[in-house]
Design a protein that fits this description.
The complex is a heterodimer of chains A (304) and B (417).
Chain A lengths: L7 H28 L2 E4 L2 E4 L3 H8 L1 H36 L7 H9 L6 H12 L5 H8 L13 H16 L1 H12 L3 H9 L4 H29 L3 H7 L12 H10 E2 L2 E2 L2 H26 L9
Helix pairs in contact in A: 1-13, 2-3, 3-7, 3-8, 3-10, 5-11, 8-10, 10-13, 12-13
Chain B lengths: L1 H22 L1 E7 L5 H15 L3 E7 L2 H14 L5 E4 L3 H8 L17 H4 L12 E14 H7 L7 H14 L3 E3 L7 H11 L1 H4 L1 H10 L7 H13 L12 H9 L3 E7 L3 H7 L4 E4 L11 E12 L6 H11 L2 H10 L4 E2 L10 H12 L1 E3 L14 H14 L4 H13 L7
Parallel strand pairs in B: 1-2, 1-3, 5-6, 8-10
Antiparallel strand pairs in B: 3-8, 4-6, 4-7, 4-8, 4-9
């Protein structure tokens, strides 16, 4: 009759991580969600339930900005999905080619922008694309395509796409590295077996490698989704809190920042700001859930 | 016996020392002007302390972008300094309403300032003033004198002359007619709309009428400046849509542009950067001989922490800040930030002198969106930035812009509903 002893050491070992994570992540998250249910009237905090969310979604002044930011966010995400990830996969496929020379050099060169600060990337690209001092207009001029140049960051119709592509330039190294790692784990024997059956070259990639790296592509997609819907830094560094021109680059992150902390004469409103943060959290949560339950569970995995 | 007297003597000196210490009041000044640190330490503080023995000053600035947040938390914690440098309008009004700033209406020296000067630090009804106005910035245009001489252009005074001058510069092609971009948005509103606007809405008259709800943003005086801004677009440099504020400053100081729509705060920087002679002209009027109006925008004030332990000493200092002596030191040390007191100050810097001289010829007003009107959502100031950019780019007509702004203002501001 000796009951198993309660294993205290598990609690002791878990405690530091649980405490730190609770203090810096879980508590602030729930406190922000709680803050969204209040408003300030005459210098005192009043509980108003879901009224802030009602304002955010149905008051035309707020909802117009919110839907604009959300739409921009989707476009930002779409460009990453359509440009960054395919390029990342293609680069990884090229890099994993056994006869490629200087593979290590290319790998580092493509990965380096990822470790740069957003401020540096934003500033450097602003200078490159500057119509006054930038090298982009003179480079285009040198090949006779000056007419193609436009002050991209200053035009409503191009600014967001330009910024998304800058972000792609910065982060293309991440999908490349993850896919590269996944490609390296594919055993030679499988590829050789394919060769015997007559599957070589490009069709080996499409028929053998791609199905095997699909789980990695899924992970990359969800990382891109979370990263893009939390994005803020690059837009803020390049275009400022008003996300100009005319809010064409405004995404949820900059909208939240402007509302929460205020801007110029606009005083900060932590309660509406928290409501926007809450909406961002919900959107990301829904996106991640769709992926986890809708896609990941149905994905076929192969035992290697 | 001998030892006792020594003890007594020692005790005596410590007592004296401590009484002397008690008389020496130290006032701590909170500010965001860390650029002015040496000015305070080398000129303002010695000048004040020489006149007022027993009061010591300590200037403790924080970074401009953090100032409001740092100050608020210090005030709430009770650790803020005795004297508080005041941002104009709502930021300081909120401090006063929260009981952090003292009402200074009873201080005699406040009569040294005009009502416009005081308006930035008053309750809406004007019954209480809580900061002593320190400095304002004036809008106008700075031009490259060499370029004007080279092209034989006279300094424009009317709008027609202004655009004729721009046409001439553009035709010649050596210089970019006007250095301004729309990337950062605020220049279009601050150096564009609020620079030329007062001539259309007749300064204070129009601004007060707008606040009172007697005029609307759809009225002609408020949309006409957008129509004028729409004509600016063709004179700005190539790719002005992506040109930032520092770009514009550099283009002008490098001598590549002829005219720079300016605020007087540029003077100090331009003096060190530009190696050509500069002049300034005020916003052109519609017809020769019209009354001119300038944006003489109140920017810095100083008030007293209601929780200060030395209210008398703090009031002595504020009275001195309101005096012509302070105005002269401050106005000359930071050219482009003009003292607001009624007694005129003799400035040394020629460019600053030109700017401040307009006060005698023109009526002063402040930026139209700053008082009361930017309190709600949507924020009228931010909306004006976007509208001014849209006007310059020709993306919307002045009437559409006026209607949009009016719709936003009416949505929360009672006198317009």
């Amino acid at each position: 009759m000796n009951r198993p002893r309660f294993r205290w050491h598990i609690v002791v070992f878990l405690a530091p991580a649980v405490l730190v994570y609770t203090a810096v992540m879980i508590f602030p998250l729930f406190n922000t969600l709680r803050l969204a249910l209040y408003t300030e009237i005459d210098q005192s905090r009043v509980f108003v339930g879901l009224q802030n969310f009602q304002t955010l979604f149905f008051d035309p002044i707020w909802s117009e900005q919110f839907w604009n930011a959300l739409g921009n966010n989707f476009w930002f995400f779409l460009i990453h999905m359509l440009v960054q990830n395919p390029i990342g996969i293609a680069l990884a496929a090229l890099l994993s080619h056994p006869r490629l020379r200087f593979a290590a050099l290319y790998r580092s060169a493509i990965f380096i922008p990822t470790i740069l600060s957003f401020v540096i990337v934003g500033f450097a690209w602003k200078l490159i694309l500057s119509p006054i001092w930038g090298i982009a207009p003179s480079m285009l001029d040198a090949i006779g395509l000056k007419s193609l140049f436009a002050p991209w960051l200053g035009k409503e119709e191009y600014a967001l796409t330009t910024l998304a592509l800058i972000s792609v330039w910065q982060f293309v190294g991440i999908p490349m590295m993850l896919i590269y790692a996944a490609l390296l784990t594919i055993p030679e024997e499988i590829l050789e077996a394919g060769e015997i059956d007559g599957i070589t070259g490009a069709s080996a990639f499409w028929k053998i490698k791609l199905p095997l790296i699909l789980p990695s592509i899924g992970i990359i997609s969800i990382l891109t989704f979370v990263g893009n819907f939390n994005a803020f830094d690059l837009i803020y560094a390049a275009q400022g809190a008003l996300a100009g021109p005319d809010f064409s680059t405004d995404i949820l992150g900059t909208f939240m920042y402007r509302t929460f902390f205020g801007f110029q004469l606009q005083l900060g409103d932590p309660h509406m700001g928290s409501a926007i943060a809450g909406a961002m959290f919900a959107i990301i949560l829904v996106g991640v859930c769709i992926y986890l339950f809708g896609i990941q569970t149905r994905m076929r995995r192969y035992q290697l | 016996m001998k030892r006792n007297s020594l003890k007594l003597a020692l005790l005596g000196t410590t007592l004296m020392a401590s009484t002397a210490y008690a008389e020496d009041v130290t006032l701590v000044i909170e500010s965001w002007r860390n650029d002015d640190l040496t000015l305070w330490q080398e000129q303002i503080i010695p000048a004040f302390e020489a006149k007022h023995p027993g009061i010591k000053l300590q200037f403790t600035p924080s970074a401009p972008a953090e100032y409001n947040a740092v100050l608020n938390s210090k005030l709430d914690a009770g650790s803020a300094g005795d004297l508080i440098t005041c941002r104009p309008f709502d930021a300081s009004l909120a401090l006063y309403e929260a009981g952090h700033l003292t009402d200074l209406s009873s201080v005699d020296a406040m009569s040294n300032f005009s009502d416009v000067a005081k308006s930035a630090w008053q309750t809406d009804d004007g019954s209480a003033s809580f900061c002593v106005p320190m400095a304002s910035v004036i809008h106008g245009f700075i031009y490259n004198k060499d370029a004007f001489a080279e092209l034989g252009i006279e300094v424009p005074t009317t709008e027609d002359e202004f655009f004729a001058a721009l046409d001439k510069i553009k035709e010649d092609g050596t210089y970019i007619p006007m250095a301004m971009g729309t990337n950062d948005q605020w220049e279009a509103a601050t150096m564009g709309y609020n620079n030329i606007g007062p001539n259309y809405w007749k300064g204070e008259e129009g601004r007060q009428a707008l606040i009172a709800g007697e005029q609307k943003l759809t009225d002609e005086p408020w949309t006409a400046p957008y129509a004028t801004l729409a004509r600016w677009g063709q004179y700005l440099g190539d790719g002005y849509e992506a040109q930032t504020y520092p770009d514009s400053q550099n283009i002008f100081t490098l001598g590549r542009a002829a005219i720079y729509p300016a605020g007087s705060w540029e003077i100090a920087g331009f003096n060190t950067q530009a190696d050509f002679e500069m002049g300034a002209f005020k916003p052109p009027v519609k017809n020769a001989g019209d009354t001119c109006y300038i944006s003489d925008h109140t920017d810095i004030g100083i008030g007293m922490n209601a929780a200060s332990e030395h209210p008398e000493a703090a009031k002595t200092f504020l009275t001195w800040v309101a005096s012509p002596e302070f105005a002269e030191i401050f106005g000359n040390a930071v050219p482009g930030f003009f003292p607001l007191s009624k007694t005129p100050v003799e400035l040394q810097d020629p460019l600053a002198k030109e700017f401040v001289g307009w006060r005698d010829e023109c009526e002063s007003t402040i930026r139209s969106t700053y008082q009361i009107l930017s309190r709600g959502t949507p924020n009228l100031e931010n909306e004006t930035w976007g509208a001014s950019v849209a006007a310059i780019k020709g993306a919307s007509t002045p009437e559409e812009l006026g209607a949009d702004l009016q719709k936003g203002l009416s949505s929360w501001y009672a006198p317009h509903q």
